[in-house]
Amino acid sequence: MSGDTKTSDIQVTLKNGDKVKVNDHVYCSPNWSIRDGTPYSVARIMEFLPPEVNNAAGGGGAATAVSAALKGKARETYTRVRLAWYYRPSDVSDRNVADARLLLAAIYSEICDVAQLRARCYVVHRDKLGNLADWKRRPDRFYFHRLFDPYIKKEFEVLLATDVRNLPQHIRDVLVSRYEYVVAEKEVVPDLTDSLRLCETCGEWCAHLDAVQCARCKGHFHMSCVNPPLVAKPARGYGWTCAPCSRRHEDQLDGAHPALREGTPKAGSGASVSLGAGAVSSMGLGLVLNAGVTGWSSASTPLSKPRGRGRPRKERPGAAGGVNEEELQVKHYKLWPFRYFGLYTVAEDTMDPDDLIFPRAATRVGPKYQATVAPAPGEPAPPASGASTGTPSSGPADVDERGGDSTVEVLSIVHDFTPREVETLEKVMQRQVVRKDQIQAVDWLTEIVRRASQARLNGRPLESVSMKTPMRSEKWKRQETRYTDREWNDEEVAAFEDGIAQFGAELRSVRDEVGTRSMPQVVRFYGKWKNARLREENARLREPDAYKKAKIPRSGAASPAARASSSMSDAEDASTVDVPTHSHSARSSNYCAACRTRESHVWWKAPKGLATSILCDSCGINWRKYADLNARPTTREETALNAAAAAAVGPGANGAPASASAGGKTRGADKREGTPLTAPGAKRAKVAGPSSAKSTPPPGAAATQHRCLCCWAKGAHGKVLKCTQCGVGAHAGACGAVVEPEEVDAWLCELCENEKTVEYALNTDCLLCPHPPRDAKAGGGGYPPPNTYLRICKPTEGQGWVHALCSVFVPEVQYADAARLRVVEAISTIPKHRWTTKCSLCNVAGGAVVRCGNCPKEYHVSCAWKYGHKFGFEIQPVKSSRRDVTNMVTFKRETGAMNAVICCKEHTSYRRMTYDICEVNDVGETALQVYARTYKQAPVSQSHSLLRKAHRLDQLLHGVPGGASAPGSAGDRDSSFVSEPTPALEHKCAQCGTEYSPFFHPAPEPADPDAWVCHRCHFETQPQPQPQAKVEQVELADVVMVSV
């Protein structure tokens, strides 16, 4: 039975072709940018609704009009739908549920746009399924057996109404005729599913809350029918026995232990039985014996067998007769198939058609929740409640009764305002607004409504309401208090944001960082600050070019293969991604974040927090439908996907038939997911014949392998690159080389390539290492030897060179292109103490040093490599409160902040597990690549390289802390060049008369003490340095020539 006959016969066709009607289950979801990566929601269609009056009058809106074809003249356009939601277990709790098909029902509904309906699905109660395992193997199938109430925040059991037997017949008939399911607490289920319980004294039905069961004969009694009446049920762990069972037990006790007869209380006394040690084993513990039931005969009432707890066994409808579970009819009463019938339900209320069906909880009335105030010393005690005077207990005469008008703080009576008064209040609010954002502030809106309500109660006009003073007076408070916190100044906001960046959501530490605010004020401001950030982010995502700004490719028109494989409409969803086919190389980041595959007909956007931003077709559908990235597609889904792709793609490449290219196993199917296409197959090919195990493989040329000078392991040609000129070899991921397969044989290292192009300096000394003497470079022309990993060098932005190893393990250095480990930037940001500290290995004070991860020793990176120290990367765990402000990586199932560490070779262990430079993850990326991509990439999308240079030069010229330059760089030519700050006033050069210069210096021997010279004239007047025997390389990375 349906509660709405107007829309019960409507059938709507979704954009993917599914036809749905009232009481069908569907996937529902708004656009991807709005739902922020969350999976689809499962809901039941309650009714279809026409457009709202205001939207229809305004010419429609974003809703998609759906015309439902009905017989006769009844034809109407429906753009909205009322949905009854289902929850997933992960939505309401943090516990892990392995079953992705399990849902939680809810008595909660919302109105949504018809365009948000994605596809049809099926949801059936567990007791209606004949074979649950077979049901879960089928696509788009879900089941439930519990209900979650979003208001009480509690889960309830859901029973079939036909399984409830412990009810009077007339109440049970009404319950079964109206509702399909009954909602109850877990402890009530055995009582509801038991046979009909009648009182042994009066013969009437025994409700759960008003009845008690004998622990021996299992008979049921009303607590008011026993003599004396029971005030409450026995406590947990104790039982109750009726009078005949008590007498029978006393007789048995007298026959077995006559000595105990003297200490046994008489029947009817209501006392507990005290037993000796020998009788405990024969009687059991904790039986409270209450005698006095009249009209009971022990001989006429046989002992009944104890009933087992739990749900009764039943014949499931899907198990017999081959009934299709999708076609099972479900009864609905006023649009709902549920009705609460639990601990706090009065059975007779079920007869009322207007009774509430929602779950209920215990009332919060009584001494447990409300305070009982004792009378003051010397005053008489208040009369007991329910005395003959008929006057309720009110305490002392001079104290107002609690709950009256004199003790109630009126917050709002806007609901009593007339339309004219509401209009006046809105004008007053617009007039009292000082800032634009005040009209949306909760505390400001609450206070102005409160003051307007007080003005109306006191007979004052609403125009007299003023918000000039932030103070207000409240009852039960002696002093006036502020209705809102004092405005935060810029210094407090800066301190708050610094605390958030340092401590995360640890607000007590943030409170200590601010210092001028209390803990409640910090908590309130944190909520406003976080909402402001989320509002800005959501506004940015809703912009038309939001995906263009984020460099996420927006999908175009869906191809037939995409529509067939996805089985749902994504025109409004825009959650598919166009991934170029040439980006499916083994070293690209375009792979599925769940299964690591690089081949898919359709790519979907992935939720936040994964390794990549895309999912393959099967994983994308599994996430949206089942909220599970580990779920694999069923056999039917795989068959449908392959058939749809074969029909859409048509003939394969090079004229191959469609069955060979799409229907059968593709090249990606022959390989394990995540295996690069250039690598050998995951499984060895089987050889036919019984003697295949002893047969010799066919002769062939052995694969060429080279040795990596970083890890000293051999690798296949292409994974380990070898320079064709100098012969240096290293893994491609360890030297920052991105080489096409056809160019592997002609690969040149960057030093050898620079000999031909002369794009960078011919002096290849590392700028992060101490400068070697001239005689040490004479033999090899200054080039590192090709038999060491230090031969791999990278160019800098100043046309110089650094070792790739040094640039990775010096934390301040960044790359313009982290994938290729070039061009090296930010050498000038290395702190000064790194340059001035002597290396503990070579005892030289030049070059930048780093510290050992286990001891305070400091040395050059190149010296540590030459002495055989240990290089690697560690994964440091991150607190949950700081994960929002920390760059985290996942490497080999370990997630955290990655750090580059160097340990002396004398140390036998390290505090954490480290990964070698050439160690790869599941995708094929080395640890060095992951670290450089995450932590060494310069912000190239935010500023040009020239602007970044100018910013660092500004730090050098103004002596900004943290902007110390490297020795030998342009910033260290003159100490006064860095130490003197730029004057704030405008100056003019005393020699050339220019007013434009990056820096003004005091004029030499000035006649006027306020005379200045420009940067160019200052260096022209400086004495020329004498030629030296040793010529040192100067890094000009951070010198910017400014011409006017």
Mean pLDDT: 74
Structural class: alpha+beta
Strand portion, in percent?
5-15%
**Unreliable residue runs:** 1-5, 55-64, 67-74, 260-313, 385-395, 546-572, 649-702, 776-780, 960-984, 1028-1044
Sequence of strands across the biggest β-sheet: 3-4-7-8-10-9
Radius of gyration: 41 Å
User: Shape from CA axes?
Assistant: extended
Q: Count the strands? A: 37
Number of helices: 28
- Amino-to-carboxy terminus distance: 86 Å
Percent of residues in helices comes to 10-25%
Main sheet characteristics: 6 strands, mixed, barrel
Describe, in plain words, how this protein is organized in 3D.
With 1044 residues, the chain is of the alpha+beta class. Helix content is 23%, strand content 15%. The strands form 14 sheets. A six-stranded mixed barrel has the order 3-4-7-8-10-9. Strand 10 and strand 11 form a beta hairpin. The N and C termini lie far apart (86 Å).
